[in-house]
# Entry
Amino acid sequence: MEKRTLHSPDLTARNVERIAELFPQVITESRDAEGNVTLAVDFDLLRQELSDHVVEGPQERYQLDWPGKRAAAFAANAPIAKTLRPVRDESVDFDTTKNLFIEGDNLDALKLLQESYLGKVKLIYIDPPYNTGNDFVYEDDFAESSTDYLTRSSQKSETGDRLMANTESNGRFHSDWLGMMYSRLKLARGLLSDDGVMIVAIGDHEHGNLRLLLDQVLGSENFIANVTWQGSGKNDARYTAGGVDYMLIYAKNERLLRSLDTRWKEPKPGIDEVEAVARRAWQQSGGDPAKATTIFRSGVRAIKADLEPAVFRYDQIDDEGRVFQADNITSPNPRPNLMYEMTHPETGKAVRTPTNGWRYSRETMDELIAQGRVLFGPDETTSPRIKRFLAEQSDRVPYPTFTQSRMPGTKKLADLLGADVFDYPKDTAVLARWIGAITRDNPDAVILDFFAGSGSTGHAVMELNAADGGHRRYILVQLDEAVDHPDYDSIADIARERLRRVGARVKQETGLLGADLDVGFRSLHVATTNMVDTFATADDLTQIALPEAVESVKPDRTDEDLLFQVLLDWGLKLAEPITVEEVGDRRVLSIADNGLIACFADEITDEVVKAIAARHPERAVFLDAGFASDAARINAEQIFREVSPETEVRAI
# Structure
């Protein structure tokens, strides 16, 4: 039932709509008195449209602007009093894995990762929520001072204090979406390595704005490609079939990639199937090259894979069972060193030299002849050709346009989890394709996805590692957005379960060959600081409350919680192995082969301090409240100065 407003029409809004019909170029976005995004008229542009001369006005500049842009920049820079809490029960192989799954607002997570992963991420792949209304829950209001923000962010809930749904009406506007993306992209750029790459998937509605936004954040000179993905279109659509999405690809420093002679490659589609046909043909022919070639050509024609036309040129099998083609051996351009005489091996007479000469120098040609790679005709009147093997041409540069249905991605997730639990999951085959191409020469790369959704990126990384023996690591960030499903409370729960099942399946399928595959993940939650919030003044504290005020750590926090906050503060990686041991009846945690040793016991003895100092760690940290007095703390510092002066010692 339609709800009536029972007031007169908004004539201003009606007039704006009429102006928009005549002069759409003068319509912009603004905010009303309540802070809502609304359509507005740029009167300077309107005056220009109605004038027969250049109208004086604000200085023009080339830029993408929107209401809330400065607030979004502030959002990226404002500090937060938060941390990451480890949750062992949700993790897989917690003590050994290098993968991270972070639950919480990705703006907070990106800030918390700044020190530990600054410049360490090779590839960022994100598929952010499309701006169509009712599909993203990020709205950041930072129109306040840094102090107010710091206070607010440390006191609100741990699971989404400044998150609210994008309304359907606001889906028409761009400002909220751009503000949400701008702050996160600014932070993400800092995590990229100098040779890092960012891929952002997007639909039609914000494609143009997103490219301008990425030009601002990463620089237009670092643009690499606008990949077009044609999914399944609709035949009953009005104008075009639709179904198109895009992936905007930017480098952090394209000039560096060029100087490193970086070249992305991917396997040519169907090559494995062609090689399998060749093996069967060789076996069926009994090792006869002519018979094998006939069987092979028939078998290739029956392959239903999407083969490149160039693959069909590899249509022969040699006497060793290898697939090859006889290719041209003449040079495309004339060069003096390529003009030389070549003798036919049977007749002993010179073969006619091509007009531009041969493709290779004499030295290289002699090597190819010795290897049997040059195919001579029956006599010198036939131009020789070069034997090129299919196995040597199995890679190609990734094409920036491709057609692929999105249904396999949805079905793959439903089959894995046994139910349809997530709409429009990323396609792991597409993810693996681009991750593989970009990290081909860096199999230990770190891949970040801070709009993780159902965990497709982690899924793709594990399968890719299983396929090529790589050791890529992933960092996934996903908000604990609620879902209406009996088995899962949030999207983060779905993603973690997906990662568990994929890891178990990959381990089973690879068997002994996958013994060193990392199929685990550390589950971390964005949370308020581990330290007690003491906003009360001394006059406000009663005698009963004083003992609580003395305690510096929240009562529900563990020494492992404190350890991860220290790792963030010191800028250490969050996936380092953790060793737990007892020293003098005190629990001690060691990170990265004595890179850091921590003891957060309530009572720290000289025995514990001396035992830790004797191991000469790079860093040592203690709970400040664990020292009985200032004298005990000073004594601990003196022990380190005498025993291990190189150790950096801190107390929290």
